[in-house]
Design a protein that fits this description.
Layout lengths: L30 H4 L1 H18 L2 H14 L4 H14 L2 H17 L4 H13 L3 H12 L7 H14 L3 H14 L4 H13 L3 H15 L6 H13 L3 H14 L4 H9 L9
Length: about 270
């Protein structure tokens, strides 16, 4: 089965720490002498904010200072990996992996490092290696973003056409967090392909309730359209076709609809 395109797996860079009051680095200039641990924390938080706003040079300066104070700071090493990955050049992508691996070597049980390294490996197309990292993060009870690691795991299985394992991962993500909307959408499509249209429809409707009818992307509309057709909901199908045409006329999903609109196959792919 050809799997529909997926959005970029989440890189949890700037949600790792709450960043407040980060206006200037001058207050940190001598903090390392008095409280090195606090200085590393503040500089890493400030770097996260700079990454969020796209100021990668300032983020790099802050992280260099943090790692100068404490080269074994797992948070600073991890954030440096995220920074270099976001910059994206071949040289920095290679360096990013070194920082992710260093963070894991400092604390192999730190789930955020596993999740972010898995994201890096996914981006590189190293899916089997990514699965190993997401599995560790996804089975770490108490990890606040455990559901996102499981969603990442499910998406990676889809890349390998392992739909059964993907379905299991998305189901576990929903068990970990009932608000895991990505899992609802992915399960809707997987169940649709199995012709379990009632349950697939419930997943899709839950997804729409969480995101809103007008906030759906092209892929979500395409899933809803196919489910409406499978359930002989002509009015629902018409609404979704019109929305897809109006908002995403050049999308692969709408072009696929035009190709299949007269097809009698039970399941449109």
């Amino acid at each position: 089965m050809k799997v529909a395109r997926f959005g970029q797996i989440i890189i949890l860079a700037c949600t790792m720490w709450a960043v407040t009051g980060c206006q200037t680095t001058t207050s940190n200039s001598t903090l390392g002498d008095k409280n090195p641990a606090r200085a590393v924390q503040l500089r890493t938080q400030l770097a996260a904010e700079y990454i969020r706003t796209g100021d990668l040079d300032k983020a790099k300066n802050e992280l260099d200072q943090a790692l100068k104070i404490n080269p074994r700071s797992i948070e600073a090493n991890l954030m440096m990996g995220v920074l270099l990955q976001q910059e994206g050049s071949p040289t920095n992508m290679k360096k990013a992996e070194e920082y992710f691996r260093r963070a894991i070597s400092i604390d192999a049980k730190y789930p955020q490092a596993r999740n972010n390294y898995g994201t890096y490996l996914f981006q590189q197309g190293r899916y089997k290696e990514a699965i190993e990292q997401f599995k560790i993060a996804g089975t770490t009870l108490g990890y606040e973003q455990r559901f996102s690691a499981l969603e990442n795991l499910g998406r990676t299985y889809l890349k390998l056409d392992d739909n059964a394992s993907a379905e299991q991962a998305f189901t576990q993500a929903l068990q970990a967090n009932r608000d895991a909307v990505i899992s609802r959408l992915e399960l809707a499509e997987l169940l649709y392909y199995q012709q379990r249209f009632t349950l697939a429809g419930q997943m899709y409707e839950d997804y729409v309730r969480y995101t809103g009818q007008t906030n759906q992307g092209a892929r979500a509309l395409w899933i809803g359209l196919r489910l409406a057709r499978a359930r002989n909901d002509e009015m629902g199908m018409k609404v979704l076709v019109n929305q897809l045409r109006a908002q995403f006329p050049d999308s692969p999903e709408y072009k696929r609809y035009l190709q299949l609109q007269n097809s009698s196959e039970a399941v449109w792919k």
